[in-house]
Design goal:
Number of helices: 13
Helix content: 25-40%
Shape: globular
Distance between the termini: 33 Å
Strand content: 15-25%
Structural class: alpha/beta
Largest sheet: 9 strands, mixed
């Protein structure tokens, strides 16, 4: 299964795609490079230096600081597609206008900041019928494809339990631990303000989030991702990559229940270390499955008891006939002795054209992508629900159809938020 197929509008001819790019520094610069052979018609960034650097490479592109102005200025006849690489708290706001105008969209992971926004974008993409792709680049790798073939081919039998762990320990933790594990030490919101760099429009960077004074604790780079106002920490960031594999291989959809453990939740900062346990119902012939996520200094029992190789990051699928251990680049069937003479199934999932090229091909031909928003939207929702359960401090029972938490209505405040004046998700 390559993902949930979408009906794509596509282009009737393979002419160069006219692309507007929102966010051109850092990760945005990498995504811009991934589509550089198409026609770049507009560049947008709140940081003047980033914008000028990109403009020097694409001198024919129109330049903007505010993507709202960009959308108001560009005519439908001037662009075909949009690439979004801003911080996640503005992903939905930069993506939705393109979908409403039936433009193709490539958006960095995670797709949105919260569950509500993920549902809005998923439904808008379905109605638009365009080519979409979330920036989970590892999905294009050969290793993930071979693991999916093994799991779906029954190599270890029906899978009833899976574990996913990442060693990154960024977020709220003690100053002592932060010195060991993190790139910045943050225990509380700064009380003071730093001068705003002249090249940065801080008000636009804040976007729909509640305004706060500038402080270098938030940027550059992804320092911002640990603050609930701007991101969801490691769960939504690396979870987009690592939970992608069990979501794909096990054909997961919406969890029935989620509960989390870790330090007491901080009101403003996502944790460095936590765990979340998901229970999914049966999917066709596949049995119910428990999926457990670990980040930071938490690891699965099989890892801590040294029953499996001590890979710092990984996935462990536990089936009725054995186990499969994997990470980004490799995998192994366990116990190795019992699989010594195992013959892998024939390759059934084609090699990717490349994550960006796959999306471009879909825009031009109507072919499906593998991380379209109808697949990555539910994946993003599931990751966010882990944080909802963690912040609520209790197990949640999720009704995906109604988007209600029937056993803990007070937890629903973490599903969405109000937006700052001047920002609406419509």
């Amino acid at each position: 299964m390559l993902g949930f197929p979408a009906i794509l509008r596509g282009q009737s001819s393979p002419r160069s795609l006219r692309i507007a790019v929102i966010g051109v520094g850092g990760r945005g610069g990498s995504n811009l490079a991934g589509v550089k052979d198409e026609t770049i018609v507009a560049l947008c960034d709140v940081h003047t230096t980033n914008l000028q650097t990109a403009a020097a490479k694409f001198p024919g592109a129109k330049l903007f600081r505010d993507f709202r102005e960009m959308y108001a200025t560009l005519k439908d006849s001037e662009f075909d597609a949009v690439v979004v690489s801003v911080p996640e708290h503005t992903h939905a706001f930069a993506t939705l206008p393109a979908l409403l105008r039936k433009k193709h969209v490539y958006c960095e992971k995670p797709l949105t900041r919260d569950v509500y926004e993920a549902r809005v974008i998923t439904e808008a993409a379905r109605k638009a019928g365009v080519a979409t792709q979330m920036g989970t680049q590892i999905h294009a790798g050969a290793n993930y494809r071979r693991v999916v073939e093994l799991i779906q081919g029954g190599a270890i039998g029906p899978v009833r339990e899976a574990h996913v762990w990442v060693n990154r320990t960024w977020g709220w933790q003690s100053p002592e631990d932060a010195k060991i594990y993190d790139r910045v030490s943050t225990q509380e919101r700064p009380k003071g303000a730093d001068p705003v760099p002249p090249e940065l429009d801080w008000d636009l960077w804040i976007g729909p989030a509640p305004f706060r004074p500038f402080n270098s604790i938030y940027i550059p780079g992804n320092k911002w991702y640990r603050w609930w106002d701007f991101g969801n920490g490691t769960m939504s960031d690396l979870g987009s990559h690592y939970n992608d594999l069990p979501f794909w291989a096990l054909q997961l959809d919406a969890p029935l229940t989620v509960e989390a453990s870790g330090p007491p939740p901080h009101p403003e900062i996502a944790p460095a270390t936590m765990s979340a346990t998901y229970h999914y119902g049966a999917r066709g012939s596949r049995p119910p499955v428990k999926l457990v996520w670990y980040q930071g200094q938490m690891k699965p029992p099989a890892w801590t008891q040294k029953l499996i190789p001590q890979w710092p990051d990984g996935h462990l699928f536990i089936g009725d006939k054995g186990m499969l251990l994997s990470n980004y680049s490799k995998h192994v069937l366990l116990p190795e002795g019992e699989f010594a003479n195992f013959t892998p199934p024939p390759k059934s999932i084609p090699d990717s054209l490349g994550h960006h090229q796959e999306w471009i091909h879909a825009c031009k031909t109507g072919a499906p992508t593998t991380c379209g928003f109808d697949y990555s939207g539910p994946l993003t929702e599931a990751n966010h629900l882990g944080n909802v359960a963690y912040r609520a401090g209790r197990k949640i029972e999720w009704n995906a159809k109604t988007m209600r938490i029937k056993n803990a209505l007070e937890a629903e405040r973490f599903l969405r938020r109000s937006y700052r004046d001047g920002w609406t998700l419509t």
